[in-house]
Amino acid sequence: MSRYAHPAGPRHADVLPEEHPPAPPEDLHELDPRVWPGSAQRVDGELALGGVGAAALAAEYGTPLFVLDEAEFRRRARDYKEAFGGIGADVYYAGKALLTKAVAKWVHEEGLKLDVCSGGELSVALAAGFPAADLGMHGNNKSEAELVRALEAGVGRIVVDSFDEIDRLERLAAERGLKPSVLVRVTTGVEAHTHEFVATAHDDQKFGLALSTGAAERAVRRLIDSPHIDLVGLHSHIGSQIFDTAGFEVAARRVAEFLARIHTELGVTLSELDLGGGLGIAYVPGDAPLTPKAIAENLVSIVSRECRAGGLPVPRIAVEPGRAIAGPAGVTLYRVGTVKDVEGIRTYVSVDGGMSDNIRTALYGAEYTCVLASRVSGAEPMLSRLVGKHCESGDIIVNDLYLPGDLRPGDLVAVAATGAYCYSMASNYNHLPRPAIAAVRDGASRTIVRRETEEDLLRLDEG
Ligand SMILES: Cc1ncc(COP(=O)(O)O)c(C=O)c1O
Ligand SMILES: N[C@@H](CCCC[NH3+])C(=O)O
């Protein structure tokens, strides 16, 4: 299962837990629909995405290449919009998962709002023409410049995360004669069942203001009294890549109870409740993600029940899915460079990217599914590890997998479900230029982000 395979904390490739190798799949070339985008298919043996063959994509754009299935992205956005919009809730796509101008346009066209969490993400959204009123702005340390940009652009919601930020925002709003709409990010003390690095609602971490210590209540009181800030609601996000509803339910109950308490004790009715993102996706066939519909019904019934019990109107709910929309729409194509058999152990297959385009395996012990993309082969399965070209032994993309035994340099391999938190967390480690992103749809492809060049890398170097 691809919840996170390894405990938190630094680890070295040599001490990766040596599990028994999983049994090889019956069909090494299968494209499991739980993991691959809807358009993925084999055409004469070759992987095609959005109707475009892997070899043609690699020839046109080079490798490594992020291929984004536009129809899959839009379908997922629409599924959220239908599930939550149908019950009067707002859906903010979390741009941190993947944000480009094209992506922002798709999000807007599908009727979603957009969550940004830095000045850079805000710039991309505004450059794409995204209506500022439909933006939500996050961040545990928004700079003065970022807050000014958000205020001047007219960002619809700012989610405040600290008392320092409240002071800063109040001053900046007062100076400009503005009154921004604000939500308070509340930490509910929920221990989400996910990797420690991506759980965000337990008390001992940097995000939000804790319910348990009274900090959240102090922030609410402070904001209610502010003439320059319009407190409209609360925000809670428990973490990411979550499969069970229990954590969402407890968090929803706790924030709804808090809303009710604010209503009775402070006489203020807050009208919005944002329950964040975090829904997991299938990275490997055994994963069983929740559907947007199931989670929507659950959350709304909990919030409605708590609010009715507290005698207050049900607030407008919002959610912020990122991974669940972008993740399964992306596939990374790599070119195999070397195939090295470490006798008696496994075969190391090195490709032309690695931890600079997918840090998630090294960072969280994330699991991925990978297939030979350029052809099919009748060769016996070979226990492999898909690794990158970085100067780092932990530069692993897929830890344990079976590939055909005749895999050779020049073959293309494809890694599924890389649409979220791969390009957006990419780096230039070892001065590797970041890959292009090509969008595919109905048999055609186009560049939505071009490949970096070495000139791009040198442009910032003043010598
Ligand atoms: C505040 C907030 N909202 C939304 C998200 C999106 O999460 P996910 O991509 O897991 O849906 C995150 C990331 O974890 C987040 O921190
Ligand atoms: N970047 C993480 C998730 C954290 C999301 C932001 N709070 C991942 O790849 O799973």
From TrEMBL:
Keywords: Amino-acid biosynthesis, Decarboxylase, Lyase, Lysine biosynthesis, Pyridoxal phosphate
Reactions catalysed, as given in the entry: meso-2,6-diaminopimelate + H(+) = L-lysine + CO2
Names of required cofactors: pyridoxal 5'-phosphate
Composition bias, Basic and acidic residues: 11-31
Residues holding pyridoxal 5'-phosphate: G278, E320, P321, G322, R323, Y421
N6-(pyridoxal phosphate)lysine, modified sites: K96
Region (Disordered) residue spans: 1-31
InterPro entries tied to this protein: Ala_racemase/Decarboxylase_C, DAP_deCOOHase_LysA, De-COase2_CS, De-COase2_N, De-COase2_pyr-phos_BS, Orn/DAP/Arg_de-COase, PLP-binding_barrel
GO molecular function, one term: pyridoxal phosphate binding
Gene3D superfamilies the record matches: Alanine racemase (3.20.20.10), Lyase, Ornithine Decarboxylase, Chain A, domain 1 (2.40.37.10)
Record-annotated Orn/DAP/Arg decarboxylase 2 N-terminal domain positions: 71-326
Any Gene Ontology biological process: lysine biosynthetic process via diaminopimelate
Classification via SUPFAM superfamilies: Alanine racemase C-terminal domain-like, PLP-binding barrel
Active site residues according to the UniProt entry: C391
Function: Specifically catalyzes the decarboxylation of meso-diaminopimelate (meso-DAP) to L-lysine.
PANTHER family the UniProt entry points to: DIAMINOPIMELATE DECARBOXYLASE, GROUP IV DECARBOXYLASE
Self-association and partners: Homodimer.
Similarity comment: family membership: Belongs to the Orn/Lys/Arg decarboxylase class-II family. LysA subfamily.
Full protein name: Diaminopimelate decarboxylase
Source organism of the structure: Nocardiopsis composta
Name of the gene this protein is made from: lysA
